[in-house]
Amino acid sequence: MNRKAVIYSRVSTNDQTVDNQLKVLREVAERKGLEVVREISDEGISGAKGRDERKGFDELIKGAVRKEFDIILVWDVSRLGRSLKHLVSFLDDIQSARCDLYIHQSGLDTSTASGKMMFQLLSVFSEFERSMIRERVIAGQQRAKAEGKHIGRKTNVNDGIITAVYQLRQTNVPIKRIAKDLKIGVGTVYKILDKVA
To answer: pLDDT category, 4, cuts 50, 70, 90?
Structure first.
């Protein structure tokens, strides 16, 4: 039984065409004995755009998750996206769906042993990049805190709310009722009471 393939193509401007990408990828599919079940294109859309702005790219990911095809054929990695964040997310989605990927210009084919290894290396680098971003965010937050800046959402807790929480609690109003009446979280009520105590 032939493996099912989808061809994904993209061009950034309306005066460009996906014809060359399609021609080559159809030949690749034929050579590999793949049955092309769909061709999905995004025309006139930048690769820097996210999935929500690229209808074809969104269809591609949904199709992989629904197991409509076994392998995605694409001309070049830049056709999938120009943002590392979007590429990492795409790789995670198709990897979890156990869908293979063939990138013509790179010669990457995850249906082969060496392609799988390259794909896993890409995943390792992607994970490393996520860790680096996380470390930079934490370092930035720590620096901001050290400089006395507030991190997180602005609070609507003011002196009036603090007084109201304290007085309501003094009259034995339940914590949940205080939170509901003052439109604040239960945790906020506890924090206020801890500070006042």
So the answer is: very high
Return the number of other C-beta atoms located less than 10 Å from residue 130's C-beta: 13
Helix 186-196 and helix 159-170: axis angle, to 10°? 90
Query: Do the Cβ atoms of 4 and 70 come closer than 8 Å?
Result: yes
User: In which element (H, E) is residue 158 found?
Assistant: none
d(CA 105, CA 99): 19
Which position has the token pair 């934490």? 138
Sign of the Cα torsion 88, 90, 96, 102 reads negative
Instruction: Give phi and psi for 54, each to the nearest 5.
Output: -120, 95
pLDDT, tens digit, 9 for 90 and up, residues 68-126: 999 999 998 878 876 667 777 788 788 888 999 998 988 888 888 887 787 677 666 66
